[in-house]
Amino acid sequence: MLNRWFTVAPDSLAATLSRGRKHRWRVLWNLAWLPWVLGDLMFTVPLPAHWIPVTAASLIVFLGLYACALVRPRRETLTYALAIVALACLVMPVNRTGSGTYLIYACAYLAFQPSLRQAALHVAPALLIWALEATALQWPWQPTVWVLIVCIAIATGQCSMFINFLRNADLRLSHEEIRRLAATAERERIGRDLHDLLGHTLSMVTLKSELAGRLIERDPTAARREISDVERVARDALSQVRSAVSGIRAAALVSEFASARLLLETAGVQMEYWRGGRELPADIETCLALVLREAVTNIQRHARANRVEVTVIAGEERVLMRIRDDGRGGVNARGNGLTGMGERIVARGGELAIESPRGRGTSIEVSLPLPVAPAREIGRAAPAASEPLMDHAGSHA
256: how many CB neighbours lie within 10 A of its CB? Predict the structure, then answer.
């Protein structure tokens, strides 16, 4: 029975906040303030005789209500938060600091609303009832005001956090919809291109094959000529299809930069990047884009970073890409997709270096050889070598 009751509901606060990397453990870590329930041991002398049993019982009840508000469906959160307010009022005559502590936790739950106005409508009545009881019990005004100020500050912070979380969730949904629409449009474009590319060619192959079949007994020489034309047309079509597929598979590095920034910003991670040097061949650019995609995905899922820096510098003989984050480090070079990343780089004659001391972030450095560029091309690309991509990174300044 208890297992079912405390199972995390899909629409609970625990399930909702677990989708955000920085919010996942915040509600549980808030329990670190619970020892303030015992504050009367320092501030009240002598304690009432029934202080210990009342405090112990209130702690058990509070932990149950706190857990229920966290794991039960969102529509029930308000009920458990109000129950915690009632608990704070009930223990006030016996345990003053415990009453204030419970009220602060209740306000934190009451403030999980989609707007500050709704949070105020839920928090204000609870504060008013508690303040009236404190006045009736002739509490000193200083601790009463202090508890009220802390409650308002906590409620404001929790509501702002929840609003930002909901906005980020909506932003993620919008980005996913944009990606879905872009993928659909790309599939349609590929279908049109392949139809235009192969439709005429296959029609020609069909006609020439039928003609060769009719001529094979009457005019073998003409039939062989038609078969030769079919072979030539088929080879041309195969070459065009291969070229089209290569273009489809190519991933532009600039586009991957923009996509990576979008993904990381949605997770609350700041990204800055610079690119300089000569223009890169399409296959090299695609390789770097795939490496960047894998690295950014790992950062978003595992690193718990706040800042990421990406630098790409292309010289005359090699291109260097460096990806650094300030996350928790401790990356295993044989996991999280890094094995495939290293194999892809080594296959192109490149090198991969990973530094990931635990607690000090991760640095991934990729070096790939470049084909020798004509002198005119190098000279033309050189002035841009030290320019950052301000059109993408400027928003992070």
Answer: 20
- Contact status, residue 308 vs residue 272, Cβ threshold 8 Å: yes
Record the pTM: 0.49
Four-residue CA torsion sign, 337, 338, 339, 340: positive
How many helices (H) does the chain have, and how many strands (E)?
15, 5
CA 94 to chain centre: 47
Is 50 exceeded by the pLDDT of residue 192?
yes
Note the pLDDT of residue 149.
92
CA angle at 83 for the pair 80 and 85, rounded to the nearest 5°:
115
- Please answer whether residues 343 and 366 qualify as being in contact, where contact means their C-beta atoms are separated by less than 8 angstroms: no
> Are the beta carbons of 68 and 9 closer than 8 angstroms?
no
Return the H-helix or E-strand segment holding 270.
Answer: strand 270-277
If residue 297 lies in a helix (H) or strand (E), which one and from where to where? helix 282-298
- Amino acid letter for position 288: L
Assign 38 a pLDDT band (cuts: 50, 70, 90). confident
What single string gives the DSSP state of each residue in 318-355?
A: EEEEEEEE-S-----TTSTTHHHHHHHHHHTT-EEEEE
Count of CB atoms situated within 10 Å of the CB of 373: 18
Q: Which residues pair with 323 in a beta bridge?
A: 310, 364
Looking at the predicted structure, is the pLDDT value of residue 179 above 70? no
Distance CA 245, CA 230 (A): 22
